[in-house]
Structure formats: C-alpha cells, structure tokens
Design a protein that fits this description.
single chain; about 30% helix
C-alpha cells in the first residue's frame, strides 16, 4: 500500500485569461492528484493537471452553490487524506475576497501540509487590461478594493467611506448593489465621476460599459451587463488611452447642453 502524504496547495488562477496563471501555479497543477476548482477559474487551466487527476467543481455563484463553504473545506481535507496532493484552484488571488485563508486554516487543523501560491488579482489586472491604471501620479494616490456584497448580503459600509475620498474605488461582487453604489456617489456630488464596468475581464467573452456615475445604470441596461464584473470608479478611468475617446466626446457634449 502506498504511503500517502497529504498536502494542500492553494493556487490563485488569475483574473480569467489562462495565460495569466503564474508559472508556479502551473508547476503545482502538474503535480496534483486532485484539483478542486471554482467558477471563476478558466477551464483551460485544468489542462495543466495530469490526465488522471481527479477534477471536482466546487464553484459558487449568488443563489447557486454546488457546495457550501463547510462542505468545500471538508472535501479538501478528505481528498488530501485519501489521495495525497490536492490543488485548490481559485479565481484571482485566493486571499482577496476568496476565503482562501479559511480553507488553509481548516486543512492545517488536521495537520496537513499547506502551500499558498498567490494569483494575479482581478482588482488590478482587469482594469489594467483596459488601460486603467488604478493609481496614477497627479490623478490618484491610492485605491480602495471593496467587496460589494458582504456575508449577510448587504452593501459594504466601506463603499460610503470610499465615496468620500479622492481615491480610485474598485468594487467586486457589486453588480446587484449598483443602484445603491450610484446613490452613495451621487450624494457626494460625484455624478460626473467616470465609471467602467468590466464583465468577465480578460476572457474571450469580456464585455465593457463606460460612463459616469449618473449614466452608468442606463449603460448597464443597454449593454446587458451582469455578474461577474468589476466596477471601477475614479478619474483614472478617464485617463485610459483605450477609453479616453469616449470621455472626450461625452464631456464635450455635456458642455454644450
């Protein structure tokens, strides 16, 4: 009987483009006996795992959970104890709104060796893919990265604080709360603040909507944008070479009204 040494490697899969997986992540997948992957991890990435590796989908969407978080934690441990080397593949970076720390802590409570391989976070990579630098000299000195929906399904209170600052604001998991987000920024007299919404960022099926706080709800409706998407609010959106033409035209039209 083989001597199985349990191990769990938490791998960040990046923002969606399979080529944005790190080399270290590729090497970890190549050694996996089991891969547990979520809904935001590109299926192409699974091709780096051995053909005989067990693949288990444990994705979660709003209102549609294949497994609860407690069940996922237990699956990680059970498969590590049974098969040895488990790779837990999570979209973006597993420690940014990914509950990766909970999964690692649970595995370690059973004495299982763990390794964390960071991923390229969608917080910075998705805006960058559209030419948006979330910090820029003379424009934005800092940025907020906020989850739009908390564990109790409410809008994060940090959004109201962020709306009062001059920083770039990047909101994940916020599409269902977009009307509330817009209202908070309008209350701060920021109706003309540029906004970009990027759905399925860096993937082939990516969709983009750009506008201002005052116009973004109508743009989302016109372009039929939905989750998963990243909301970027800030003057840096206007600075993007890929989006600059829209804002030059938009604000020139506003000035003659």
């Amino acid at each position: 009987m083989l001597n199985i040494k349990p191990k769990v490697t938490l791998v960040g899969a990046g923002p969606g483009d399979p080529e944005l997986l790190t080399l270290k992540g590729v090497k970890a997948l190549a050694e996996a006996n089991v891969v547990l992957y979520d809904a935001l991890a590109n299926d192409e990435i699974l091709g780096h795992a051995p053909k005989n590796a067990i693949r288990i989908f444990v994705g979660k969407r709003i209102g549609d959970h294949v497994y609860s978080q407690d069940q996922i934690n237990q699956l990680i441990v059970d498969n590590a104890l049974t098969y040895g080397n488990v790779v837990r593949l999570k979209g973006g970076d597993p420690f940014i709104f990914g509950r990766g720390s909970e999964e690692i802590e649970f595995a370690e409570s059973f004495g299982i060796e763990t390794v964390v391989i960071p991923g390229i976070s969608s917080v910075v990579a998705v805006p960058a893919s559209k030419g948006i630098s979330i910090t820029k000299r003379g424009v934005s000195e800092s940025f907020w990265a906020i989850t739009g929906t908390t564990s109790d399904r409410r809008l994060s209170a940090d959004v109201a604080l962020a709306a009062q600052s001059s920083a770039t604001v990047v909101i994940l998991m916020g599409m269902h709360k977009l009307p509330q987000i817009v209202e908070l920024f309008q209350q701060g007299n920021k109706g003309n603040l540029p906004v970009a919404i990027i759905q399925n960022g860096t993937r082939a099926e990516e969709k983009v909507g750009v506008g201002t706080v005052d116009s973004i709800l109508e743009i989302v409706k016109q372009k039929k944008l939905s989750s998963p998407a990243i909301i970027v609010l800030g003057e840096v959106v206007r600075e993007s070479n890929k989006l600059k033409g829209f804002y030059e035209e938009f604000f020139s039209e506003e000035s003659v009204r």
